[in-house]
Design brief:
Blueprint lengths: L4 H11 L15 E4 L14 E4 L1 H8 L3 E4 L5 E4 L26
Antiparallel strand pairs: 1-2, 3-4
């Protein structure tokens, strides 16, 4: 299941780039990611979607997660390891979005 054209435009406006920390891939090169997979009952609505570039979307679907360290570096944590998610600072001039991808 994919987002509608209107939903994707809203995602592009809200997220402005890939939501993986440290990735600045432009939104027109990203895809909508379901917080809860659609096949597991996730809904295709803005509250449950976030933009990820194809590379980071594939990592997420394989179970990898980003973890930002206190010094600012980002680790890509393998599946199964518990961690606290952090989705990076806001793009200049906008407040940080509510975490649409959650744990």
């Amino acid at each position: 299941r994919t987002s509608s054209d209107k939903q994707f435009l809203a995602l592009m406006h809200r997220d402005r780039q890939c939501r993986w920390p440290g990735c600045s891939r432009e939104p027109d090169h990203c895809q909508g990611h379901h917080r809860v997979p659609w096949v597991k009952g996730g809904e295709t609505n803005l509250e449950d979607l976030a933009l990820f570039c194809p590379f980071h979307h594939a990592l997420w679907t394989q179970g990898y997660r980003p973890k930002r360290l206190p010094d600012g570096r980002v680790l890509t944590v393998p599946p199964g390891e518990r961690l606290e998610l952090w989705f990076g600072p806001a793009v200049a001039g906008r407040p940080p979005p509510v975490d649409p991808v959650g744990p």
